[in-house]
Amino acid sequence: MKKGASDESQRSSPAAGRTAVSDRLAQFERRQSELWRLTFFLLLLLSIVFAVVSWDTIRSLAHRFEALPIGLVVLVVLFGLYAWKRTQEISELRGLVRGIEQRDTIAPSEKQLDQLFDVISRSQQGYRDLIDSFDDILLAVSLDGQIRAANRSFADLVGAVFPQIIGRPLTEFIEEGTGDGGELAQRIMPRFLERRVWTGIVQVRLKGRNSIYYFDCVAHAMLRGNDVHGVTILARDITALRKNEARFTELFESLQEGIYIATPDDRLIDVNPALARMLGYESKEELLSRSFADLLPDEAERRALREQVENQPMVQGREITLTRKDGRPLVCLNTAGAVRDTSGRVVRYHGALMDITERREMERRLYQQQEFARRLIDSFPDLIFVVDTAGHYTYVSPRVKDILGYETEETQTMELGDRTHLEDRPALLALFAELVAGRQVFASLESRVRNKQGEWRRLRCHNPAFAISKANGAGCAAISVLFSMKPARSMASWFPPATSRNSSVWKSSSFSPKSLPPWARCLPASRTS
């Protein structure tokens, strides 16, 4: 009973204290109100006395100031009204504060409790709707790993409902993908408790599934006072992004063309193994220790390449010469583009290099061979010309000027038979058609050809068996050797003799194109018509 009486006295003492304070506050307000009324009355009395005493003096002045005493009285009245209004407002505020203080002693009604419960329920539902609207996973986990809260994205991921998730250990649903989750948590937990924030990419595996997921996580400490009692985790699923990165890395590493990424200051950011092999380096790390200026020492060439890349969306097939590790040149076709930031400033270049050193060497050798064959043919004393299957001249040797008086350029507009005598032209065209059709192996005939001066010259035309070739899958040329009767003896050893002096066609079963010189099997077509 004594304990109950003491508890009752403890509960009643704050109320008694608040009652005494309220009584003293009411007494102060009454005294303040009396003081304001007294002050206003004195001001009003002084203003009236001043107006009466000074009335005659004011009227004797040159200027009219009769309204001054009346204005003073009116001003005092207005000041009194203003002070009374503000006093009333202060009294209302004090009454409101007094009511709030007295409300603590009154128990809330059932209606007020229902309203409070409804507000709390709506707040909780709004919070639940908010976190469920996140596409990312949101978790609240205690320090011992129990799930305190989770959003719908996490429930959909693990395939469980909220009652099956809340209060259960996180390890019942997911595990670290490499199997070192416990060791990883022990390693990062001291640093997390110190900094109270952690970011990183986590590889996890769902229990009962073999698929791997990657999440970009941000963890914050939940504080109670100054102590950490839990962790909130925001995790974004980046599994698809990591798979795309893996496929890109696989493609990047397996391409046979050299791939590079460089900065505007000529620093190499990344290269693939193919480029390292092309330039003779042991590894891509060794190549990355060099700069792009080491690979392309010519400053003017680098500047021109940089300007071209920055001014065009993509540079296609620009030929550049790089320097290998051993100092040898490497001729490449460069396809490059620029990557810019949001302000339009170039932040890096990326490109692909194709090694064409062997191709350029083959082209050089082929050019030398063609040049040798051309000079050899040009040195022949006989007139040599090449026509395609349509009868257009694709090559005419310089001897055309000595034999017929035409310049080589003048023959570009001529066709087979244009300068042949009308009586000999049908036989020439018929023979040409037989050769193109493949019905003739070798033929020779004489025909009259008009030179530039208009004179007719009798020439013998030999059409050897190598006239029709099948390069690129189509008949590409019919080759005829046209020369005067006298120089004909210089090539008599190449062709079989005629069966008779007046024979128009020579045929030989023993003739073979392999018996001809190499230059005659494939004449160059550098001088085309």
List the helices and strands and how they pair.
Blueprint: H1 2-53, H2 55-60, H3 67-103, H4 110-132, E1 137-142, E2 147-150, H5 152-158, H6 162-165, E3 174-176, H7 181-195, E4 197-206, E5 212-224, E6 227-237, H8 239-254, E7 258-262, E8 268-271, H9 273-278, H10 284-288, H11 292-295, H12 299-311, E9 315-323, E10 329-340, E11 346-355, H13 357-378, E12 383-387, E13 393-396, H14 399-404, H15 425-437, E14 443-450, E15 456-463, E16 478-484, H16 518-521
Helix pairs in contact: 1-3
Structure characterization notes:
The structure is a single chain. The protein has four domains: 16-103; 128-242, Beta-Lactamase (2-Layer Sandwich); 258-355, 2-Layer Sandwich (Beta-Lactamase); 369-521, PAS domain (Beta-Lactamase), CATH 3.30.450. Mean pLDDT is 76; it is low at 1-12 and 465-529. It starts with a helix and ends in an 8-residue tail after the last helix. A six-stranded antiparallel sheet has the order 2-1-6-5-4-3. A five-stranded antiparallel sheet has the order 8-7-11-10-9, with helices on both faces. Strands 13-12-16-15-14 form a five-stranded antiparallel sheet. It is α+β, with helices and mostly antiparallel strands and 529 residues long. α1 packs antiparallel against α3 (67-103). It contains 16 helices and 16 strands.
